[in-house]
Amino acid sequence: QYVVEADIKAFCDNVDQDQLMGFLAHRVADKRVLRYIRRFLKAGIQEEGVYRASDRGPPQGGVISPLLANRYLHYTLELWFQRRFQPGCTGPARLIRYADDYVACFKHEADAKRFRIEMEKRLGLYGLEIAPEKTRILAFGPMAQQWAKEQGRRKAETFDFLGFTHYCTTSRNGKWFRVGRKTISRRLSAKLKAFKEWLRANRTLPTAEIMRTTANKLRGHYAYYGVSGNS
C-alpha cells in the first residue's frame, strides 16, 4: 500500500574505497584479484585530455564500476534490510534494487516512515546520503486510488523507476489491482529528439541503410520498453 522512493546523492563520488575493499574481501580470497581491483579504483579518469585522480568511489564509466557499486550497496543496504529492518515490520515489506536505484514497498505506513528514517541513518554510517528532494513516501497499491478520491485528487500518485513511470490501474475486467508501467515521458521525448537529429545528419545515406539502422534502433527500444500496457 506504500512505496518509499529514494535517491542516493552522488553515489559513485561518495563510496569509501577502503570499506568497499573490505566488503569484497568477504567473498574474494585471492589477494592478487583484490590488488587488481584496488588498481582499478586508483587508476583515475581522463576526460577531454584532463586526468583526475579517483580517491573516492568506483571511477565513473569504469568497466567494473557497476559491479563494485552493486556489491557496496548489497552490504550497506540490502543485507541490513533483510536481516535487521524487515523482521521488525508489522506487515509484508520488500526492497527492489538495481545498482543504486531502489524502491521499498510496505503494507503499513508506519513501516514506510520508519524505513525512511532508519535508511538515512544506515547510509550515513558509510558516507552516503539521500537527496531529500527526490525521496518521498507515497500511497501506491489497491487502496491508493480510493484514498486519492477521498482527498479530492483525481488519481493516485505515480513514481519513476528504471525508465518507467509506475501508476495504479486495474485488470481489463476492472476487478483486480495492477501496476501499470509506461515510458517516462521526458525520456521518450529525448529519444525522439535524438532520432530526429540523427535523421537530419544522415539524410543523404541510401534509403535501405537508413531503414536498416532505424529498425535496429526501434528493436533496441522495444526490447526494453516493450512491456504489457506500454503501447
What are the main properties of this structure?
9 strands, alpha+beta, four-stranded antiparallel beta sheet, about 230 residues
Can you offer a commentary on this structure?
It is built from eight helices and nine strands. It has helices at 11-14, 17-25, 31-42, 65-85, 109-124, 144-150, 185-201, 207-225; strands spanning 2-7, 45-47, 50-52, 93-98, 101-106, 136-139, 159-161, 164-170, 177-183. The strands form three sheets. A four-stranded antiparallel beta sheet has the order 4-5-1-6, with helices on one face. Strands 7-8-9 form a three-stranded antiparallel beta sheet. A two-stranded antiparallel ribbon has the order 2-3. A hairpin with a 6-residue loop joins β8 and β9. The radius of gyration is 22 Å and the shape is flat.
Rg over CA atoms, rounded to whole Å, is 22 Å
- Structural class given helices, strands, pairing? alpha+beta
Largest sheet: 4 strands, antiparallel
The total beta strand count reads 9
Shape: flat
Fraction in helix: 40-55%
Q: How do the SSEs run, as a string of H and E? A: EHHHEEHEEHEHEEEHH
So how many helices?
8
In whole angstroms, how far apart are the ends? 26 Å
Beta-strand portion reads: 15-25%
Low-confidence stretches: none
Give average pLDDT, whole number: 89
Task: Report strand order across the widest sheet.
Answer: 4-5-1-6
